[in-house]
Amino acid sequence: MTYVRCEDLFKIYKVADLEVVALRGLDLSVEAGEVAAIVGASGSGKSTLLNILAGYDEPSAGQVRVGNHDLVRMNENAVGEYRRNEVGFIWQQASRNLFPYLTAVENVALPMLLTNVPSTVRMKRAEELLELVGLAGRKDHTPDRLSGGEQQRVAIAVAIANRPPLLLADEPTGELDDETASEMLDLFGTINQELNTTVLIVTHDPNIAYKVGRVVMIRDGKTSAEIRRRVSFRGIAGTADVQQQLEEFILVDGSGRVQIPKEFLDQLKIKERARMILEDGKVTIMPDGA
After folding, report:
1. Which pTM value belongs to this model?
2. How many structural domains does the chain have?
3. I need a surface site. Which of 17, 126, 137, 252 has the fewest CB within 10 A?
């Protein structure tokens, strides 16, 4: 069942007298309970997409649905409710995830305060979540007494405090060493399996295709390609399974548009125009002078 669906999504920012197009007709679908990684160059629109799915930003045009929620048509109150209950968000910088003057258990309990959960239930669940992320013994520590990896573990517990069905992570391992980053990805896998949480991770990890079941590549504000394992896999693991065979597919959006890799265009010397022929069940693209 499709849980996240974006159709022909645009986002335009105005900076002084300039317009910056961050998303250019992006299409994306993610199944319920799936883990998918989103990769792309800096400025390709990855973080913009996550901010829209989290309800932190509004699209300029297009459709966005998460579960039964139409993010384009929701009013301010509905968006606030959506952010509290339906989605968890993890920033790359641990300082953005946690309040420095609260202990780990207090940070985790805080989101539940906004949903009127009784205090005894809040603290019990907060302690259970810290145990899930391996920090039961550090519950009374403030963030300054935790390592970077421990802070991100607490941040994950905070993000899932209200049992959101969708977890978004924007470069959650970007400031961690390789070993700690691997532990974080294993933890995402545990959450996905035990809570059936749908997980979307933005990352620059070059080996991410060997750690998740699907990688969606974004270029120039649009989904351009995806990489899947030949053997179906829906979770995520911290260790790269390099023995897995991968398949790369070019993506076709709802309007029939595809992005041809620049190196292909350069090799074929295709610039502004090209010829396209359908023959024997195959589409052939050639330079306009061919």
Report:
1. 0.90
2. 3
3. 17
